[in-house]
């Protein structure tokens, strides 16, 4: 359940950002999350809604954009993974290189005005 810690981190960042804008209400947060983080987006959305209760981010919409991982597989030629994987998502080869796909950043936020 590491999504809970992440939900808290996102909230902290969002609140700190909103503070710079006069603590106005946060209505939307766009987040990029790499698939290698192994996060279930629905869980993160749910938990964010939970931790945001009672703050200026309560009710904010968390939109998650999943960043695919780049794969270099010499066996089958797969180039991309759209779900969490350790080896090649195409043929299962453990020698495939899997990189990127570990992003975790807020792309944008909408603040009420
Ligand atoms: Zn492969």
Task: Note the main attributes of this structure.
binds zinc ion, alpha+beta, hypothetical protein PF0899 fold, single chain, 113 residues, 25% helix, three-stranded antiparallel sheet, 2 helices
In short:
With 113 residues, the protein is of the alpha+beta class. Helices cover 25% and strands 29% of the residues.
Please tell me about this protein's structure:
The protein is α+β, with helices and mostly antiparallel strands and 113 residues long. It has a single domain (3-111), classed as hypothetical protein PF0899 fold. The chain has helices at 3-19, 41-51, and strands at residues 26-34, 61-67, 69-72, 80-81, 97-99, 104-111. The strands form two sheets. A three-stranded mixed sheet has the order 2-1-6. The longest helix is centred in the first third of the chain and has 17 residues, at 3-19. 26% of the residues are buried. The site of zinc ion has 9 residues, from loops.
The total count of helices amounts to 2
- Total beta strands: 6
Query: Quick one: overall form?
Result: elongated
Stated plainly, the CATH topology is called hypothetical protein PF0899 fold
Map the helices and strands:
Layout (H helix, E strand, L loop, with lengths): L2 H17 L6 E9 L6 H11 L9 E7 L1 E4 L7 E2 L15 E3 L4 E8 L2
Parallel strand pairs: 1-2
Antiparallel strand pairs: 1-6, 3-4, 3-5
Helix pairs in contact: 1-2
